[in-house]
Amino acid sequence: MQNKQEASAFVICDDLYKIFKVADIEVMALQGLDLTVGRGELVGIVGASGSGKTTLMNVLGGLTMPSAGQVIVDGANLLKLSTRELTTYRQVEVGFVWQQGSRNLIPYLSALDNIKLPMTLAGRTGREADRRARELMEKVDLPHRCDHRPIQLSGGEQQRVAIAVALANEPKLLLADEPTGELDSTTSDQVYDLLKRLNEEDGLTICIVSHDPTIAQHVQRVVQIRDGKLASETVRRPRVKSRSENAEWTAKDVSWEDHFEELIVLDSAGRLQIPKQYREELGFQNRVEMEVTEGGILIRPAQNLEQTSSQAEIQIEREIRGEESEAPSGLLARLKGRK
Fold first, then answer.
1. pTM reported for the whole predicted model
2. What does the DSSP assignment read for 186-236?
3. 165 and 20 co-located in one domain
């Protein structure tokens, strides 16, 4: 039975694994990743290079299939789609914006013709396609640039046209991989503002992969991927900054500010990732002790690590083989006593 969060979710990734084979070496890009994105949500995805975030975007976009697990977008399980259905999904249901302009735009086509191209491939042509393309140029605030080719546009203008291209077939999901990676901070803010407006006005579900440390200021939620798994989540919560000194104050007398709170993700298998700086500060090694307390669960460094299970097994094996002493003792003595 689905829980409440899953029932209202637009994207569900459940225990995703993705293994790439390079020569004789297998690389695990995703290692049991769980992710849920609500309909109409604006989410940032961050992580170090090689953490698996771009692989996740490719899976969500139907560009690559996971090795195990399932991915559901708007009720459709991508692993069960036929080749034709998957092609339609990529053309119509999802839009892509890449960091490199060469992947977003055809250099010898005008901005307007770039937007028309995906519509033509989907079977929409003529006046309807022209009207939709001009409407999108208005939406990205570039109606005066319709006849300009990419080389005649600034970096920020190219990315805004790229967003218009991604929206050409009215997708329900927009995936943006480092859309501001090659832009200055001012232009980046303009692109983020556009994405935020599309999310608020059109209810578009948007996932943005980014290295930008300020992305939390532009999205509703930030999830961090580490070693192919979801590690933490930063949520934005409003809190009272100040309010009127009047005894009879109203809501409009309250001043609010954004407060960002980082939460550690507990996956479906009950696993969580403790940040490296905490492990080093507290002296955590490869074993910990857990204790249920009144306020929750207490995790602390394990004591007597020399008695961990793996080393205890070695000790038992040594006793059985009689390597520790010629006289039978411990488990060996008990086993011999049964004969």
1. 0.77
2. HHHHHHHHHHHHHHHHH--EEEEE---TTGGGTSSEEEEEETTEEEEEEEE
3. yes
